[in-house]
Amino acid sequence: MGFFHQVLPGIGTKYELETESGDIISVIFMPNGRVQLYTQPAQCPDCYAADLNPMESRRLGNVLTGAIMEAEEEGVEIAFSALADLRIVVHTYIIRDQLSGKSITDLDIRSRTGVTILAVSRDGKNTVNPRPDFRFMSGDAVVVIGESDQIRVFEQEFME
Amino acid sequence: MDGMEGIAIALAVCVVVALICRRYALPPIPFYIITGLLLGTAGLGIVGTSEISEWIAHMGLLFLLFTMGLHLHPGEVAKRRGSFLTAGLIDLVINFTAGFAVAFLIGLPFYDAVVLAGAFYISSSAIALSSLIDNRKLGFRESDTVIWLMVFEDIMLVALLILFTAQDVSPFRIIGIIICVAAAAFTCVWKFRGRLRQFFAREDELPILAVFLAVVLAVAVSEVTGVPDSLFVIILGSAISLAAADRAEVVARPFREVFLVIFFVFFGISVSFSGVPSFVIVTSVIVLAIITKLISGLVIGKVIHGRIYSGIDIWADTASRGEFSILLAMLYGSPAVVPVVAAMVVITSCVGSFSGKYSTHIRRWCGHIVAGK
């Protein structure tokens, strides 16, 4: 299995992968963000091509790395097939009045539910990895990360 | 009509032409020239050249060469192995010699013959590269060969420009100045490449200003030193490619697109067919231009890829002559050469866009014919 890349002047960068079975896959990145993908099966002179926009190429990349994203209304679930099917959920919630003024330590979020508060968004400003003494205010948008069971516990404890 | 009205009319027609070309996936370059021919001296005589149009056309040429320089990253070129040189030399020897022989046979003086040979030899990078992208051919090995052939031809163009310049004034002085400017440009960019990369990554207007300044600076240095600005912009482009080739290209692109359309259409407008040799001669030059690229393509296919049919793919995308042929004719050609080059560019690029689109069919068809025998 060989893998190499080269610059194509005036076009972009080309990555070429030869699989064990002798198929050749080429990926060409162009400066305008578009990507062209070619597959050339072994023993076949023809090339099959696809022209992808940046969004499409990211989606294809996600599928290939095994991180299949199932978009929910306010969260995504990412499955890492390489890590014994580890499934991680990232979810957003809006803080309601009864949690207002309480800190992360007061609520003891990590030990009670297992989830981690990843970020808080308040009035258009984001705080990533808030400190334990961070105090919530009503209307804050929080991003939590955890396994789906832990997320469910978090919803029951704090969001209902 | 001269001046701004003329430019407005020409540009308005070009917008419509570009729209039609995009609609039918045709290369716009030959159609800009045809538009110019129809509007200008050779056609209806509606639009004439003026100082402003010449200035804008000249900027188009400089931006074309600047972006060409951006593709000449010295490190990447130096990394290429023997196949790059072999393919390039086959292409050069066959097509340049043929072009020179033809020019000599139709009785052009030596200087004009070299100009025509250069125009005859250099394919259109713009048409070749967009054909490879639009027709989804980048996966083929032959496409790599085509892309690097274009780079080799660019380097030969630089050599030709130096040759034409050096014969005007004292050659050693000119070459000395070029080497000094190149050394200064490359050293500066290399020394400050980290900062330059950050600078070109900016989202505000500064990179745009800097690129325009680079080109204007090249003109200014050229006025002081007497070395043509075309060489300086290539050197600057190539130097900047060390730091931020992709970003600089994105920034320079709008300038190039606008000014280059003016360059093509006003080239068409300025062409006069009065000094042209006979129709038969022009036609035979064009037919030969297509045939010699086929021969060089087949030889390259056989030598580099081991298959003569690869040559058909190589020919299909390199048959078009375009921007660089016009550039040589416009800068150095006499009234006898210019219309021949104009006709050659228009016809070969139309043939080339067709062959680029259907190269796989043409190759298969040739395979059937040979097998049938």
Walk me through this protein's architecture.
The complex is a heterodimer of chains A (160) and B (373). Chain A folds into 2 domains: 2-65; 69-159, Regulator of K+ conductance, C-terminal domain (Alpha-Beta Plaits). Chain A has 4 helices and 11 strands, in the order βββββαβββααβββα. Chain A has helices at residues 54-65, 104-107, 109-113, 148-159; strands at 2-8, 12-18, 24-29, 35-40, 48-52, 67-71, 75-80, 86-94, 116-122, 125-128, 141-146. Chain B is mostly helical. Chain B has a single domain (3-368), classed as Na+/H+ antiporter like fold. Chain B is built from 17 helices and no strands. The longest helix of chain B has 42 residues, at 229-270. At the A-B interface, strand 1, strand 3 and strand 4 of A face helix 7, helix 8 and helix 12 of B.
Keywords:
heterodimer, A: 160 residues, alpha+beta, Alpha-Beta Plaits, 2 domains, five-stranded antiparallel β-sheet, 11 strands, B: 373 residues, mainly alpha, Na+/H+ antiporter like fold
Q: Beta fraction of the residues of chain A?
A: 35-45%
Query: How many domains of chain A, as an integer?
Result: 2
- Tell me the name of the CATH class of the largest domain in chain A: Alpha Beta
Q: Would you identify the CATH H-level superfamily of the largest domain in chain A? A: Regulator of K+ conductance, C-terminal domain
Second rung of CATH, namely the architecture of chain B:
Up-down Bundle
What is the C-level CATH assignment of chain B?
A: Mainly Alpha
Number of strands of chain B: 0
User: Biggest sheet of chain A, open or closed, and with what strands and sense?
Assistant: 6 strands, antiparallel
* Count of discrete alpha- or pi-helical segments spanning 4 or more residues of chain B: 17
Summarize the structure.
The complex is a heterodimer of chains A (160) and B (373). Chain A is built from 4 helices and 11 strands. With 160 residues, chain A is an alpha+beta fold.
Topology, pairings included?
The complex is a heterodimer of chains A (160) and B (373).
Chain A (H helix, E strand, L loop, with lengths): L1 E7 L3 E7 L5 E6 L5 E6 L7 E5 L1 H12 L1 E5 L3 E6 L5 E9 L9 H4 L1 H5 L2 E7 L2 E4 L12 E6 L1 H12 L1
Antiparallel strand pairs in A: 1-2, 2-3, 3-4, 4-5, 6-7, 7-8, 8-11, 9-10, 9-11
Chain B lengths: L2 H21 L4 H12 L11 H20 L3 H6 L2 H24 L4 H12 L3 H10 L6 H26 L4 H21 L1 H8 L5 H20 L3 H42 L8 H27 L4 H9 L4 H10 L5 H20 L1 H14 L1
